[in-house]
Each structure stands twice: as structure tokens, then as C-alpha cells.
Design goal:
34% helix, single chain, seven-stranded parallel beta sheet, two-stranded antiparallel sheet
């Protein structure tokens, strides 16, 4: 039996509800009157308790999950879905990561089409453009994505985007929004970048000092809220204001650069990654060599996105140099449960 809600009430489903993006979007929307119910879809609970929140255990790597998901979305009267079930860091289990991101996205979009959702928002990253010597100074949303079989962490996300674009053509009545976020940094998020910068000494490739683009974690969540609540569709680069050379980023963080010859760096990082002692596979070292800077003009003009943190204040907040804001009162409506 299909759920019955007040007129105009919206129902949101969030895949990857335990991850940073899914969890923070849910947290920010729990007291938003525009959404009557929120479904947290993940194999684990998001760690939040609220009357309008319901956790449903969904494993996107299982065969046939698209049928069960479609039935759930239709039964719950869902009109909007945030697909955030993507890895924020590379995984050593490449096969599982492919099942989650590439095949899982296929399941999610099949279910969204069957349930005739009104809006689908999907998370991607500007890293999908790839780092290459001939990249322009600013990569627009029309720039081709770099499908590198060597970097499975990126290849799965590229495949997921292509599935989303095919879904757009086959389901024109569903508004699809893809947000490509710049590498995220902040005081609470945990990803390969925060692990890299948590060390006092950080690698640097001799002869290379590319410009770096970052995005504050809370600005990223702001962008997802805009995509969920506004009548927009399309692909948007979500970036902070400003770029800095990698060496300047390290200096501002107080980190000591460890210069490495390129011929030594790649086999060293490959060994560290293979023994699970390093945070990234060697393919991501390309981003310490070449430019990968995205243009955020479309997001400002069409999405209305205006970041609160530029790259300098993003770095400062990560290392604890910004004053902490006093948390706003939530009236005790949202309870956080730590595992």
C-alpha cells in the first residue's frame, strides 16, 4: 500500500546515507519542513534519530536490488533521490568498488525510472576530468572525462556518470543533477586527502608544482541542498574560490614537502599502496604533476552556489586555525547516535 502524505509533502531517499555526503545532507534536512520523510538507504544506519527519518538496509552490490528498491521508492511515495553511495577514497577491493559504484548506480537508476521519480541528484568529483599535461587552465562541464583503466577509483565514477547521462535521455521527465565536487577538505570529513595531509611530511614530485583546487566540506553540502531543492538540472562543477600551488598548500598547512624523483615516486607509492601503508594508489600521483582545475561559473549562475570558504579559509579550518562557531540549537529534535 502506497504511503499517504499531506499535499505538497516531499519524500527524499538517500543512498550512501552513512557516508559523509549522505549523512550531512540528511542532518541538514531533518528540520526542513519541505521534506516530510527521509529514507536513509545504506547497509549501516546513519547514526541519526529523528521522527521523519527511516533507515532501510540496502546493499547496492546485490543482484536484483533494483527491483526491491523500486518497490520501496514507489511504496514510500518518494519523489526525490540523492545518490551518494560513492567512495571518497580508493579501495583495495577493486571488484567490490566496481559493484558498488558502477553496477550500484545502474541499480539505482533502474529503480528511479521504474518509480518515476521527479528528481535525481548524483555525486561525482572533478577528478573525473583527470590530470593531464594538456588540460586547459579551467575545465568546464563540457570537457571530456578521462576514462583511465589504470585508476579504477576514477573509472567507476566515469562509468556511473555515463549511465546517468543515458538515464537523462531515456527519462526526460526526471530532472537529473550531477554535482562534481572538487577534492573536499574540512575538520570532520575523512578521505584520502585528509589522510595524506595528516602527516607532517607530504610527498612532492621533483620538477612539478601544479595548482590545487579544494572545496570545504560544508560548502559541498550547501551545493547538494541547492540541487535537491531548486528546479535545476544538468552537470555542475562545485569548487571554492581560488587555487594555490601545491607547495603553497603544504606551507600553509605547516607540512614539510618530501621531494621525490618521478621515477622513484611511482614504484614507492605502488609498494606502499600494495602493502596498505599508503593512502592512494600510484595513479593519483598524476594530480601532483599536472593541472586539474574546474570552472565553477555554471554552478554560480544556474545553481546559485556561492561558497562560504575560499581555498585559504578551507585549509585554515582543516588545520584548526579558524575560530569555531557556536552550534545552533536544534530544539533537541535531532539525536546523533555514535557507534
Amino acid at each position: 500500500m502506497r504511503a499517504v502524505y499531506p499535499p505538497g509533502a516531499r519524500v527524499l531517499a538517500v543512498t550512501g546515507a552513512r557516508g559523509f555526503v549522505g549523512r550531512e545532507v540528511i542532518r541538514r534536512l531533518l528540520d526542513d519542513g519541505r521534506f516530510f520523510r527521509i529514507l536513509a538507504l545504506d547497509v549501516r544506519e546513519p547514526g541519526l534519530v529523528h521522527p521523519k527519518l527511516r533507515h532501510v538496509r540496502v546493499d547496492l552490490t546485490l543482484p536484483g536490488v533494483d527491483v526491491a528498491l523500486a518497490e520501496l521508492l514507489a511504496k514510500e511515495g518518494c519523489d526525490t533521490l540523492l545518490h551518494a553511495a560513492f567512495l571518497s577514497s580508493p579501495s583495495h577491493d577493486v571488484a567490490w568498488a566496481h559493484e558498488l559504484e558502477a553496477i550500484g548506480t545502474l541499480h539505482v537508476l533502474t529503480a528511479a525510472g521504474a518509480a518515476r521519480l521527479r528528481r535525481v541528484v548524483m555525486w561525482s568529483q572533478t577528478l573525473v576530468y583527470g590530470a593531464a599535461p594538456h588540460n586547459p587552465n579551467f575545465l568546464t562541464e563540457e570537457h571530456p572525462l578521462r576514462d583511465s583503466a589504470r585508476a579504477s577509483f576514477l573509472a567507476d565514477k566515469v562509468e556511473a556518470e555515463r549511465q546517468a547521462l543515458r538515464f537523462c535521455r531515456e527519462h526526460p521527465d526526471t530532472a537529473v543533477v550531477i554535482l562534481r565536487t572538487a577534492p573536499m577538505l574540512g575538520p570532520t570529513i575523512q578521505n584520502y586527502l585528509t589522510r595524506l595531509f595528516s602527516h607532517a611530511v607530504c610527498p612532492r614530485l621533483l620538477g612539478f608544482d601544479p595548482l590545487v583546487q579544494l572545496l570545504h566540506e560544508q560548502d559541498a553540502i550547501d551545493a547538494f541542498l541547492l540541487a535537491l531543492c531548486n528546479e535545476v538540472r544538468g552537470t555542475f562543477n562545485i569548487v571554492a574560490e581560488g587555487v594555490l600551488p601545491y607547495s603553497t598548500v603544504l606551507a600553509r598547512m605547516g607540512r614539510v614537502p618530501l621531494p621525490l624523483p618521478r621515477m622513484l615516486a611511482y614504484p614507492l607509492v605502488r609498494t606502499l599502496w600494495g602493502t596498505q601503508l599508503g593512502p592512494v594508489p600510484p595513479e593519483l600521483l598524476d594530480f601532483l604533476r599536472y593541472l586539474c582545475v574546474a570552472d565553477g561559473t555554471r554552478a554560480r549562475q544556474q545553481l546559485g552556489f556561492s561558497p562560504r570558504f575560499d581555498i585559504c579559509s578551507t585549509i585554515d579550518d582543516f588545520v584548526g586555525l579558524l575560530p569555531k562557531e557556536t552550534p545552533s540549537a536544534s530544539g533537541g529534535k535531532v539525536q546523533e547516535v555514535r557507534p
